[in-house]
Specification:
two-stranded antiparallel ribbon; 4 helices; rod-shaped; alpha+beta; single chain
């Protein structure tokens, strides 16, 4: 005899997920510094020096003296020679007066007055002794002015560019649940 049975066949529901990942993009544009350099200014000024040349002695050496200068030089020369003559005469008088020293002062003085004794070169008045040009130079310091230019800076800051696409999660049913019920053994054999 068959016993009636209830058969259950069951499938579970399966859930599926559709996942879209989030996307994040960040770009950082470079900042612009914008520097402006003002050039420095350097000014140098050189004043002229003062050059003084005195050629009066050189002109006198080549006998290009004016009448006043010539008169003054001749007067000085005459005075100098007169003083030398007075000194010499005074010395010779002292030697002649000192008879007690025994000697021949007259012959000695005559020999000293000769050119042979002096053994000196005769130099003409107004001959060249050096060039006679006096040069004087007064240098002046340079004038230096510096103007500092400096730097101007105008930075331009750029913000980051941020793009964000959010992610999504979508759920769906991959497999539906089911329940199948079968009844077995309901057939009754009535033959006897």
């Amino acid at each position: 005899m068959q016993v009636p049975q209830i058969r259950l066949q069951q499938t579970f529901a399966k859930l599926g997920l559709q996942i879209t990942r989030p996307v994040q993009e960040i770009q950082q544009p470079r900042a612009e510094l914008n520097l402006h350099q003002e050039p420095a200014v350097l000014e140098i000024r050189q004043p002229r020096g003062v050059l003084t040349m005195d050629t009066s002695e050189a002109q006198a050496n080549i006998d290009l003296r004016g009448p006043l200068r010539r008169s003054r030089d001749n007067a000085e020369y005459g005075y100098q020679k007169a003083m030398e003559a007075i000194a010499q005469i005074s010395e010779e008088g002292d030697r002649l007066r000192a008879i007690e020293n025994k000697g021949n002062p007259i012959a000695d003085i005559a020999f000293e007055e000769s050119v042979i004794y002096h053994n000196t070169e005769i130099i003409a008045e107004g001959s060249l002794v050096g060039d006679g040009v006096e040069i004087h130079y007064e240098a002046r310091r340079p004038e230096i002015n510096v103007q500092i230019g400096g730097v101007q800076m105008n930075p331009e800051i750029k913000r980051p560019i941020h793009n964000y696409t959010p992610g999504k999660v979508e759920g769906y049913i991959r497999q539906w649940n089911s329940l199948k019920i079968d009844f077995v053994g309901l057939n009754v054999d009535r033959k006897l």
